[in-house]
Write a structure and sequence with these properties.
Layout: H1 10-24, H2 30-40, H3 46-55, H4 69-76, H5 92-113, H6 120-130, H7 133-149, H8 155-179, H9 183-215, H10 218-231, H11 271-280, E1 291-293, E2 296-298, H12 300-308, E3 313-318, E4 323-326, H13 354-366, E5 371-378, E6 381-391, E7 397-406, H14 408-412, H15 423-427, H16 431-434, H17 440-448, H18 460-466, H19 470-477, H20 489-492, H21 498-505, H22 509-519
Helix pairs in contact: 1-2, 1-3, 3-9, 5-6, 5-9, 6-8, 7-8, 7-10, 8-9, 11-12
Length: 522
């Protein structure tokens, strides 16, 4: 990791580690530790703390679960030097900080409400906002951590992933206690939750983000911004910058950028273009030229289209345990981004489940096993996941293929269907079909019958029940609405309002209201 920075003083880092260890073990007091640091170190940058954590601190089984970042900052407060950097509003690091600012407001609301007799609806509304913080955590894990790991910043990110999951589960646990009317237990957990989330944000803002700005260059941040928008944001709206400069960092943010940049950055080509460039080296320069695959001939465009229309999600990890490929389908069960490519597969999983990943690969590599099955079974949702060992014609292990599918609809099927039935006929005619029919007025009353008005608090489920074909309008307004076609969308549908839709899809609220009202003639 230290090769990403210039003029790292190894002796200085050893002194810092020595003093901090002595304090942690109770050999010296807080005042003695501060004085020793001030006398012997003078100043310390956030990334130097990260290097110490990466290279010098002994690893423990459950590190970072409940680490007291405030206690650490107290020790370093006289020597820690941070730089205030002016970043564009939509820069990836700015987005994380903006989300944290909103989360801090929500935590203040928790501390305020906990003083009064519990009113369930007030807490439900507050926790529906707190739950959105999961998007912040998911984006870190799928976007920021992979870039840092490719530069050698591995251990802090993998341990912090554990803390992310701990916070996510803690919020969910409190929410479930609220739903189950376990009021006393719910209230008793609020102070701990507030302290844990603040501790996480302190670690982000004092160590993770400053270190990221030192290690990641402007081009990598621009590429990261694309994937960020794909996964989404909590609490904030981020508009795509048509100029491609929305994530441009200040010059100091890219001062230290050793290591090769990620493959395929901001203006990166898609899968077909990348493959075309590779094959061009070997004389395949015609995009319409058909390639001999094992059971036919396909152009590069056809290959890409097939992968984009797969009815299942596929991912491939090679024999070196690096993620090489995933299908970018519209119905993806779980979010993915381009930053996962080239990442060690063990770093794509929370620490608690890494041993399962390692066991699967070990059994596949040895030939002892050829597949491993998993499934997620929840009300109204059944996800099937299977891993296959990939072997060449000589039986040599060449990697792992993961297939994931939402089987909820399949499991609901009964009897037999041997006659052709179109999906559109099952849902009813589209609005456009009716517009040319003589009974248009009566059908319009059907589509808008359940909606006398549409406000920012109108539920998405009510809008879709009034007319499922309104999805066409939503898809036109923003590609982000295509998440409605993913299976996990069913979990959020009962809670999503027009206002939440506006925030998640980054569509102006007034624009969204106007378009919906015009669609339903309200």
């Amino acid at each position: 990791m230290r090769e990403n920075f210039q003029n790292i003083d190894g002796k200085k880092l050893e002194i810092v580690h020595e003093i901090k260890s002595a304090y942690d073990e109770g050999k010296i007091s807080l005042e003695e530790a501060r004085k020793a640091l001030k006398d012997r170190v003078q100043h310390l940058a956030p990334y130097e703390i990260a290097i110490i954590e990466q290279e010098m601190v002994e690893e423990t089984e459950d590190e970072c679960i409940k680490e007291d970042i405030q206690a650490m900052l107290e020790v370093f407060q006289d020597v820690l030097v941070t730089k205030d950097q002016e970043l564009p509003e939509n820069h990836p690091i700015s987005c994380y900080r903006r989300e944290n600012a909103k989360m801090k407001e929500l935590l203040l609301s928790v501390e305020d409400l906990v003083q009064y007799p519990l009113i369930k609806n007030q807490w439900l509304e507050l926790y529906e906002d707190l739950l959105k913080f999961k998007i912040h955590l998911s984006r870190k894990q799928n976007q920021l951590y992979p870039v840092l790991e490719k530069k050698g910043f591995t251990r802090p990110t993998t341990t912090m992933w554990t803390l992310d999951d701990f916070i996510r589960d803690e919020i969910s646990e409190c929410y479930n206690l609220l739903l189950e009317d376990k009021e006393e237990e719910f209230i008793g957990k609020q102070a701990e939750l507030v302290a844990d989330v603040r501790d996480l944000m302190d670690k982000e803002e004092n160590i993770l983000y400053p270190t990221s700005l030192e290690m990641i260059n402007e081009e990598e941040f621009r590429y990261m911004a694309e994937g960020d928008r794909e996964i989404g944001f909590a609490y904030i709206s981020v508009q795509a910058d048509k100029s491609g400069n929305s994530a441009s960092a200040s010059s100091s943010a890219s001062a230290s950028t050793a290591g090769a940049p990620l493959s395929g950055l901001s203006s990166a080509p898609g899968f077909a273009e990348e493959l075309a460039g590779l094959l061009g080296k070997y004389g395949f320069n015609n995009k319409e030229e058909k390639l001999n695959v094992s059971t036919g001939q396909l152009t590069l465009e056809q290959i890409n289209l097939i992968y984009q229309h797969m009815p299942v999600d596929l991912s491939y990890v090679d024999e070196n345990e690096l993620v090489c490929f995933y299908t970018d389908t519209k119905h993806r069960v779980f979010p993915r981004s381009k930053n996962v490519i080239g990442r060690d597969v063990k770093n794509c999983h929370p620490k608690a489940s890494v041993h399962i990943v390692e066991e699967i690969i070990k059994k596949f590599r040895s030939g002892e096993q050829d597949k491993a099955e998993f499934w997620i079974n929840k009300p109204d949702l059944f996800i099937y996941i299977i891993y296959y060992a990939v072997r060449d014609e000589n039986g040599k292990f060449r990697g792992v293929l993961e297939m994931m599918q939402d089987c909820t609809h399949i499991r609901s099927l009964q009897g037999s269907q041997t006659l052709l039935t179109w999906e559109q006929q099952e849902k009813g005619k589209s609005k456009e079909t009716f517009e040319d029919e003589e009974n248009r007025e009566s059908t319009e009353s059907l589509t808008a019958g359940k909606l006398t008005e549409i406000t920012e608090d109108t539920l998405l489920k009510d809008i879709l029940e009034a007319d499922p074909n309104v999805k066409t309008l939503l898809f036109r307004l923003s590609d982000r609405f295509k998440a409605l076609n993913t299976p996990l969308a069913r979990i959020m549908l009962p809670k999503a309002t027009v206002k939440i839709m506006s925030e998640r899809a980054e569509v102006d609220l007034n624009t969204l209201l106007r378009e919906l009202r015009e669609y339903f003639k309200l």
